[in-house]
Structure formats: structure tokens, C-alpha cells
Amino acid sequence: MSEETKKIELGGEGLYDARKLGVPKMLVLGVQHTFAMFGATVLVPILTGISVSTALLFAGIGTLLFHLLTKGKVPAFLGSSFAFLGGYAAVAPLGADGTPSEMLPYAAGGIVVSGLIYVILSDLIKVFGVRKIMRFFPPVVTGPIIISIGLILAPSAITNCQSNWLLAFIALAVIVVCNIWGKGMVKILPILIGIVVSYIAALFMGEVDFTAIQQADWFGLAIHTGSMAKFSVSACITIAPIALATMMEHIGDIAAISATCERPYLSDPGLHRTLLGDGLATSLAGFFGAPANTTYGENTGVLALTKVYDPRVMRIAACFAILLSFFPKIGAAIQTVPSAIIGGISFVLYGMISSVGVRNVVENQVDFTKSRNLIIAAVILVSALGFNSVGGITVPLGASYSFTLSGLAIAAIVGILLNAILPGNDYEFGTDLKGDTAVNFEV
Fold first, then answer.
1. What angle do CA 235, 240, 123 make, to 5 degrees?
2. CB-based contacts of 417: which residues, under 8 Å, 6+ apart?
3. Burial of 347 from C-beta contacts in 10 A (0-12 / 13-18 / 19+)
4. Could you say which of 58, 91, 202, 227 is the most buried, measured as most Cβ atoms within 10 Å of its Cβ?
5. For residue 427, which of 384, 372, 379 has the smallest C-alpha distance?
6. Between residues 9 and 119, which one has the greater pLDDT?
7. C-beta separation of 65 from 284 below 8 A
């Protein structure tokens, strides 16, 4: 083994080909990403009445489809989107006793249409070129948006930690120790090790509830014909406009992954391909009654922490998600991980996302001596955090329907508009991440 390979394995540099580690280690890395996405992915179906197994199945299938359409280049995992919760609440609210609404299939129809809106924008980008589109998304816009993603997620980490601060501290401490002082695989598996160690501690503390495992079946089908999409104009009008906001979030997520991995994924394979992958994955999920998909910040945090950037690892995680969807008892076992442990892990992951945003601004040498840049960044940050704290803005659609713009969506829209209106927009897309070398990207 060469010294260069050894250095990469120890986490000194980014690892873009995990096959150097061998199949067993790649599988373990995939499991780590599965744990990172699991909590949020299953929470959306729990809040909406959708089958958890269906959500896991199409998170996995959607991720594989995304990788197929993006030439297997982007290390992204697609899980259940929280942005559409308001749409579900409007079209198919849960019953008072938590029973799923009979309108869920119509909400799923709205999800199908939402995904198709992604496809339309993807075609527009392909026709007009990514350079013209990305002029509206310079680092002064995408950087603060990425920072906001992590900061918006931060309160949920604290909320989870509050259930048991000792467990949260154990998880956090193990991650820090493994990542800073660990060697070899220990250094690039801090999250998985943190979960195992803190889970053992939780067992001794009596903090693990095995009820869900006892009630779950060993095997079950993840597709239910009664939940498949049905279409109504009112449901589509209510849910589909949310896609305009989530597309802004998608661009921020891909920019975050690009900055983390130091690869220009917005150009290669191209924003049109990532939008197409996300959109078709969402439409496919909706057709079978699963939640809308979105690129997951939790997994981007894992990338930043471990420096293992190989998309193959994400595809392994996707296969694990598909496998879990057919074995409810295994999924239930993962659900027994106390929320405090998830909080301790999120402490690092969510902070990593915001740190990537700061890095994006610094490495692209955004000049904050310019008033326009200060104003854009300030308005984005305040809009994202401020509107998020009050539940966003509800936009009425006629007398009976409305949809809610999240704080992040509002921040993205306002930031894009300010960047387009204020004079001095001299950003030219087509330089590398550090902004000092011209690169000819083909789209």
C-alpha cells in the first residue's frame, strides 16, 4: 500500500473511490449513511399516515434512479421531504386518533405533479444552459442558503438531546474522539460507532423501548395498491406549487454537496440532470403512495465528516433502505434508537452543513465589503431563520385551499430576486470552487 493511499484511508484527504477500502468496509460505510437518513425518512410517513415501509422502499429506489440519471457521479441520498407536510395537512390531514386520511392517494397525485415540475425546469436548463440559470445562484446566494439549512435543522437537534442529555453527550463525545484521534476505519465511521456505543449505554440506562420490535412483522410488502396515486385538480393545485420552493432547496443542497466534495456537480453531470433525477424520483414515489423525495442534508453532513465521497457508498445505503422496507422488524429495531442519540449525532451533522456554507462563501472569495453582498446575505439569513420560527408564510389559493412557503424557500426566493435586482452582479459561473481557474464545462 502506497503512502498516498494510506493517507487517504486515514481521512487526511477526500476519498473518491471507496473500493480501495474493500467491500466489507464499503458495506459498513453504507450502513452508516442508512442510519443518518433513517430518522428523518421515517418521520415524514409517521406524520402523514403513509406506510413507513413504502417510504423506505422509494427512498432507496429514488436514490438509485437519481444516481442512474446523474451518471453515478453525485454522492447524494434521497429521502422523505418535509417541505410537503403542509400540503399533506391541507389535502389529507390525519384523523384525531392518528388514522390515515382517505384523501392520501389524492395527495400522492399532487406529489406526482410536483416531480414533473422539476422535469420541466430541468428541460429549460438543458435548453438555455446552466451558465444563464446559475447567474441567479452565485455563492453570495447559495452560501447563506446552505448556512441556513444547517441552522434551521439545529433546533431539532437540541429538542432530541433534551430527552436525555447524557446519552446525547456520549454520542457526541464518541464522534469527536473517533474523528479527531481515530485511526483507519475508526476515523471514517464516527457516526456508526457513536450510535453503537451510546446505544449500549442506553440499554444499561433502561432507555430503549422494544415495543415497536415486538409489534412489527418479520416480512411485509412495501407497496399497497390502495395507496397509489389518484388525481384531483384541487389537490394538485394545493401541493404542486410547493415544488417551486423545493427546487430552490435542491440547488442549495447540490451546491453544498459540490462544496463538500470539491467537485462541480452543478456542471458535471449538470443541474439539469440532478433536477431530473430528483423530480422523477419524486413522481415515482408519489405514484406508489410514498412521500416526495429530496436530497438529504444529513448525508451531506456525513460526507463532510468522513471525507468519503464515493457515490457507490450512497447506492449501498439505498440498497439497505430497500432491504429494510421488506423487513419491518429490522426497521423497527432501528427506530428503537433513543431520540437523544439522534440529537447528539445531529449536533455534529447539522453544524457541518452550515460550516460547508461558510466554506462556500470563503473559497469563492465573496466580497462582503460590497453593500449588495451584505444585504443579500443578511436578508437570506434573517428570512430563513425568522420565517421558519413562525411556520413560514401561508399563501391562499382560492377560498378553500392554501400552501405554505417554508422559511428556507422564502429566503431562497428573496435572495434570488435581490441578486437579480441589485446592481453589481458580476458573477460568472464556470470557475472552479476556489474561483481562480477557468474551466470549460459542457452541459
1. 145
2. none
3. buried
4. 58
5. 372
6. 119
7. yes
